[in-house]
Amino acid sequence: MGARGRWAAVIAAAVALLFAGRWAAPVLADRWWAADAAPGGASFLTGWHLLRGSLDLAAITVAAAWFTGHLLVICRAIGSVEVPHNLANLEIRSAVTPRGLAWAAAVAGLVLGILVGVGMSREWATVALAWEGIVYGVRDPVLHRDLGLYIGQLPLWRVLQGFGMVLALTGLGLVTLLYLVIGSLRWTERRLAISDHARRHLGLLLTALALAIAWGFVLAPFELVAGLGPTLDAGWQVRMAAAYALAGTCLMTSLLSAAWAWGARPHYVLAGWLVLAIAAVGGLVVVPALADTGPAPVEPGLGRRLDGLAYDLEGIALRSPLGTANPAPAPTPRLPVWDRERAGRLATGDSGGGAVLAVSPGPIGGPLGLRPVWLLTRQRAEGGVSLSAVADDRTTAAGGLVSYQWGDTLAYPGLLTFTDLPEGSLHPGATTYRLDSMPRGVVPGAWPRRAVLAWALQAGRLLAPVGPDVRLQWHRSPRARLSRLAPFAEWNDAAPRLVGGSLLWVSDGFVVSESFPLTPRVPWRGRRVSSVQAGFLGVVHPDGRTEVYLRPGAPLLAQRWAGLSGEIVQDAAAIPAELLTLLAYPEELFQVQRRVLAGDRWGLGPLAGKRAPRAEPDPPVHLWGAQGHPLAYGSAYQVAAGRAVHAVLHAGLTAGVPGLSVTRFGDEAALPGPEEIARRWGRFPLFEQLRDSIRQAGAELLPGPVGYLPGAPGLVATQAFYAAAPDRRPLAVWWSVATPGRLGAGRSLAEAWDNLEGSVVPTPPGVGPLGPLDEACRWMDSADSALRIGDWDRFGRALEALRQVLRESAPVEP
Question: What percentage of the chain carries pLDDT values higher than 90?
Answer without folding.
Answer: 29
